[in-house]
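Example record

The entry below shows one chain as it appears in the dataset: sequence first, then structure tokens.
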Amino acid sequence: MHATQPSAINATHQNPASAVSLLQTWSIEVLPRTAAKIADFTALLPAGTRVYIAHVDGTPLNDMVATAARLARDGFPVVPHIPARSLDDVAQLGDLLARYRGEADVRQALLLAGGRASPRGSLSSSLDLIETGLFDRMGFTHLHIAGHPEGNRDIDRDGSSRAVDAALLTKQAYSERTDAALAITTQFAFDPQSIIAWSERIAALGVTLPVHVGIAGPAKLQTLLKYAVTCGIGPSLKILQRRALDLTKLMVPYEPTDLLEALQAHKSAYPDSLMAQVHLFPLGGIEQAVRWAKEKAPR
């Protein structure tokens, strides 16, 4: 089991220069409509970049599959969101996965409950998706599940983490009996201490899955505040509100450099941290997020 407080001796003797960079490899999230605005992903993204295709309820599944096929043709590993609550039933899930496999050779997926308040059909959670057995039968090699460093009040309405933790441990157990590699991809946050404390806490529970830390790319503060309210993030919203009160920062676009440096300092001191890499949410635009990642990635 990963210790909650790694050894200070190990931290002292760890050479930061030899620590794995959280930007050694990174992934990015696009929507079908935002991807359509990029003329050539091969000229923008480093070869092999994992690209998630986000699903907003109401997005036609045909658009999701077409975007996956385009990115796959360009040589990128594709990770479509599979939103349980937006699907009619297991049969529709099977048809969708068959299309992803057949039309885009998709082998990875992010399993989510989805943004709907109530399920469209018989599927309501990522556990429901897993329990269909379809991902194993159809040869998916990598499955990603959602992580919530600042909690998820849609699941734990009392503000605790009991239900989220129980579900995470069930998925940890599933990872030990499936051939697919599992990882946790988190919601974006702006408070490094919340992310670090959460990753250490779930490790202490017995979770060993690598964590792909969600980070919002460069964006205007007003844009970030809008998304923060929509997504219901907690301590991070207070950080953005404090920034909004600082007139010297109000008109300057946000960049996640300080956040990355804080997370990297922890990873360098405690290399056994579950945090493995960065996942970019390009809230201020895909090109801006990619430019920042390329500038900050190790040479």
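Notes for this example: DSSP finds 13 helices and eight strands in the chain. Residues 1-18 have pLDDT under 50 and may be disordered.
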